[in-house]
Design goal:
The chain is of the alpha+beta class. The chain has 2 domains: about 160 residues, no CATH class; about 120 residues, Nuclear Transport Factor 2, Chain: A, CATH 3.10.450. About 55% of the residues lie in helices and about 15% in strands. The chain contains 11 helices and 6 strands. It has a 6-stranded mixed β-sheet, with helices on both faces. A hairpin with a 2-residue loop joins β4 and β5. The longest helix has 30 residues. The radius of gyration is 23 Å and the shape is globular. The chain starts with 12 loop residues before the first helix and ends with a helix. About 35% of the residues are buried.
Length: about 300
């Protein structure tokens, strides 16, 4: 067996393979958190997966030898990509037909969706987060859901710590002003059960008793026939709207109780096909928001997830 000549190139195949395997392990370990950040930023599981795919490609191409904290690097890349994607997503939603709602996700296996706390995962909160600018939203998500220190958030957003605190503070104030404290899961389900009984019969008085005075009903059908193309607001208007479509919507339908975005929800089926996911935002005043996810592109992935 001859000695290797120093002028001969080293075979780096094994080292490269080991390096890629380590990179994959680091990425897989951080993936739940990365998805949780991207989903909370975009309100879309499909868009979040696109962000994670791009994050993985950048992680592969990066000089990983000098990166001491892979999770921190991956979080930074994911957050910045999500901020950029949020800006383009808003432009797409300007041409969306009818009300836009976040894409629901099944949270049974991971109620906190990769975070330290189950914050900013409720469908109603995600809808309200749409009113924030991308940097406010990122700062709020990282602080409230993932408990990141302000100094670290400032590094990710490439800004100062005082400004980061202001971003989080503005986001908190917006959410407090726009949403009342939600009830417990058990109270949420009880009220939703009562609502279903009233909605199926179309009983106006019963519906009005369950709705908050300034309730809003959103039906996200993506332009499909039968879904209201404008939000319906106000107790009397929403009650009349629900009573009017009851004879067309509820006969021959069956319901299944599910969990969506950390809250009890109702999956409605007709003739063997899912037609809507009903989610609600409930406070001590009653139902504050009704959110009907009817767009097949959003409904199908959720139904597939809860069927597993």
């Amino acid at each position: 067996m001859r000695d290797r000549d120093d002028s001969e190139p080293l075979d780096r195949t094994g080292d490269d393979r080991d390096s890629l395997e380590r990179a994959m392990k680091d990425f897989v370990a951080a993936r739940p958190q990365l998805f949780g950040i991207a989903y909370r930023m975009l309100g879309s599981a499909a868009d979040a997966e696109d962000i994670l795919q791009e994050t993985w490609l950048r992680w592969q191409r990066a000089d990983r030898s000098g990166i001491r904290e892979p999770a921190a690097f991956l979080t930074t890349v994911t957050t910045r990509l999500a901020i950029n994607s949020t800006q383009s997503a808003r432009k797409r939603r300007e041409t969306y037909v009818g009300p836009w709602l976040p894409e629901p996700v099944d949270t049974r296996a991971d109620p906190q969706l990769g975070a330290e706390r189950a914050e900013a995962v409720d469908l109603a909160v995600l809808l309200l987060l749409e009113k924030l600018n991308p940097r406010e939203r990122a700062a709020y998500v990282l602080r409230e859901a993932f408990d990141y220190p302000y100094e670290r958030i400032a590094e990710i957003l490439e800004t100062g710590e005082p400004h980061t605190r202001q971003l989080v503070s503005r986001a908190r104030k917006h959410l407090r002003a726009a949403r009342r404290e939600p009830v417990s899961d058990s109270a949420h389900r009880r009220l939703l059960e009562t609502f279903l009984e009233a909605a199926r019969t179309g009983t106006l008085t019963a519906l009005e008793e369950l709705l908050a005075e300034d309730v809003v009903s959103y039906a996200d059908g993506g332009g499909m026939r039968g879904a209201s193309r404008v939000p319906v607001a106000g107790r009397e208007r929403v009650a009349r709207y629900l009573a009017a479509f009851a004879p067309r919507f509820w006969p021959h339908s069956r319901v299944r109780w599910v969990e969506a975005n950390g809250r009890p929800a109702v999956l409605v089926w007709r003739e063997g096909h899912p037609v809507a996911l009903l989610c609600a935002d409930v406070s001590d005043r009653g139902i504050e928001r009704l959110m009907w996810v009817m767009n097949p592109a959003k409904l199908a992935p959720y139904v597939a997830a809860v069927a597993d």
